[in-house]
Amino acid sequence: ATVAFSQIDTSAQSVGSQYGARVARSGGTDIFGIITVQEGALATVGKNITLSGYMRKGSGFTADVGVTFGTRASKFGAVSDSANITIANATLSTSTWYRFSTTMAVTTTTSTDSADLFEIELLASSQAGGANAHFEVASLQMEIGDTATEFEQEDQSLTLLRCKRYYQTAPIYVQTIGNQVTWVFPVTMRVNPTVA
């Protein structure tokens, strides 16, 4: 099976974000799509979380798309809390963006299971590969509450700081004392960093 992911420009369309993602199948018939993980589920126990976004399809896309939104202790681990919707192929258009949303209650099960990851899956089933056999997603957003709001554009400097929780490069110069290197992180790392 051959699946390709690419960035698409959505800045001239009214979906709120500048870019989106295209997931295309050129061969095979297995399930394919996007799976992404975001930490922070434990901080939302007792609240409802809404996932929303926009989707459209290519002219050769014939499958439905399942959207699953849940909490897990590890990637692909057992699901603690979840919400699911199916976006029927007939709902999707090749030109107009379809807005979808689903809301999940984050219960004490998430806390009991130490499930600190949100996992989002957008999967197409039984789709044969071919020309324009793709779906596109834009403006995915998770937020506390029962209602999907307009896509929130985040300042790029804030996004960069959040990214630095996961990965940073060392500066060109460092001060060394004996065999030690001193490095002050601009933000707290997600986990204790390793040096490569």
Topology of this protein?
Elements: E1 2-9, E2 19-27, E3 32-39, E4 48-57, E5 65-72, E6 79-87, E7 98-105, H1 108-112, E8 117-124, E9 134-144, H2 156-163, E10 175-177, E11 180-182
Antiparallel strand pairs: 1-2, 2-9, 3-8, 4-7, 4-9, 5-6, 5-8, 10-11
Can you describe this structure in just a few lines?
The chain is mainly beta. 7% of the residues lie in helices and 43% in strands.
Keyword list:
single chain, 196 residues, five-stranded antiparallel beta sheet, 2 helices, 7% helix
Structural summary, described in words:
The structure is a single chain. The chain has 196 residues and is mostly beta strands. It is built from 2 helices and 11 strands; from the N terminus they run βββββββαββαββ. It has helices at 108-112, 156-163; strands spanning 2-9, 19-27, 32-39, 48-57, 65-72, 79-87, 98-105, 117-124, 134-144, 175-177, 180-182. The protein is globular. The mean pLDDT is 88.
- Return the string of H and E elements: EEEEEEEHEEHEE
Low-confidence stretches: none
Structural class: mainly beta
Overall geometry:
globular
Largest sheet: 5 strands, antiparallel
- Kindly report the spatial arrangement of strands forming the biggest sheet: 1-2-9-4-7
Please count the beta strands (DSSP E, at least 2 residues each): 11
Measure the end-to-end span: 34 Å
Kindly state the percentage of residues in helix: under 10%
Radius of gyration: 20 Å
Question: Strand percentage, roughly?
Answer: 35-45%
User: What's the tally of helices?
Assistant: 2
Overall mean pLDDT score?
A: 88
